[in-house]
Amino acid sequence: xxxxxxxxxxxxxxxxxxxxxxxxxxxxxxxxxxxxxxxxxxxxxxxxxxxxxxxxxxxxxxxxxxxxxxxxxxxxxxxxxxxxxxxxxxxxxxxxxxxxxxxxxxxx
Length: 108
What we know:
Order of helices and strands: EHEHEHEEH
CATH superfamily: Glutaredoxin
Radius of gyration: 12 Å
CATH architecture: 3-Layer(aba) Sandwich
Shape: globular
Number of helices: 4
CATH topology: Glutaredoxin
Strand content: 25-35%
Distance between the termini: 15 Å
Largest sheet: 5 strands, mixed
Helix content: 25-40%
Number of strands: 5
């Protein structure tokens, strides 16, 4: 799929619904762990082309972050066929991301 920078709750929900496998990365400017997490997401964009990656800056619109009860950034939500599967809080490397994606059958 592709990577999207979305800021409106409705856009995010639509993209999740239309995607077979998706993650939403909640982040914000000024967050050191978010900056450290960016290379992991960039690598995921290349390594997992079938995965929809939605980057959501909570400072642009809090609606979806509040609905999702985000308390820390970065936080990553995982979805399959529009259904929420899991969340992971904090920065992690590509190996951990791949492990989570495989556990939830978001990649082969």
